[in-house]
């Protein structure tokens, strides 16, 4: 789904010091989950607070090895990352996802909020969807809206 230039730019980004530092910060903060098979890391998903209000968590580092795609690994690591964020008090989740993975996230309850590009280099920008998922209030909880009749 990506051009050779987009693949090369994405790989350059993934192997950059900035990206590695960001992911290590997530790991150190214990906000990264992984799936292993026979000692091999085959899937990851992490999260960070997306704002100062503490209500929105942004997923990052969502990856499944192509050899293990379509086996439910992605669903499980994303679910585990969301559960971790929920336990920390977050109820809204966002992700900036390449367009090729939009259907996957929509199958998990995410909805496209907007579309844009992710500049990977000065020459290459990857088309992305900005997706959002809001947990429903627990059953039996009454939500009161002010100013609504």
Task: Give an overview of the whole structure.
By secondary structure, this protein is of the alpha+beta class. It has one domain: 3-Layer(aba) Sandwich (Aminopeptidase). Helix content is 30%, strand content 34%. The longest helix has 15 residues. 19% of the residues are buried. The mean pLDDT is 88.
Average pLDDT value? 88
Please list the strands of the largest sheet in the order they lie side by side.
1-2-3-4-6-5
Structural class: alpha+beta
Helix proportion: 25-40%
Q: Helix-strand pattern, N to C?
A: HHEEEHEHEE
Biggest beta sheet attributes: 6 strands, mixed
CATH class: Alpha Beta
Task: Work out the count of structural domains.
Answer: 1
In CATH, the topology is named Aminopeptidase
Percent of residues in beta strands: 25-35%
Shape-level CATH architecture: 3-Layer(aba) Sandwich
Cα end-to-end separation: 49 Å
From the alpha carbons, calculate the radius of gyration and give it in angstroms. Answer: 17 Å
Uncertain segments: none
Can you count the beta strands?
6
Per CATH, the superfamily is: Gcn5-related N-acetyltransferase (GNAT)
Shape assignment: globular
Helix count, DSSP H or I runs of 4 or more residues = 4
């Amino acid at each position: 789904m990506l051009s050779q230039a987009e693949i090369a730019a994405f790989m350059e980004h993934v192997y950059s010091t900035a990206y590695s530092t960001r992911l290590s910060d997530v790991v150190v903060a214990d906000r990264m989950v992984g799936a292993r098979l026979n000692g091999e890391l085959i899937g990851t998903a992490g999260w960070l607070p997306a704002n100062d209000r503490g209500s929105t968590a942004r997923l990052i580092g969502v990856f499944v090895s192509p050899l293990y795609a379509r086996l439910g690994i992605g669903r499980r690591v994303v679910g585990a990352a969301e559960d971790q964020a929920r336990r920390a008090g977050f109820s809204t989740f966002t992700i900036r996802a390449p367009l090729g993975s939009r259907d996957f996230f929509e199958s998990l309850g995410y909805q496209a909020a907007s579309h844009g590009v992710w500049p990977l280099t000065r020459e290459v920008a990857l088309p992305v969807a900005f997706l959002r998922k809001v947990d429903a209030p627990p059953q039996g909880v009454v939500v009161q809206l002010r100013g609504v009749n």
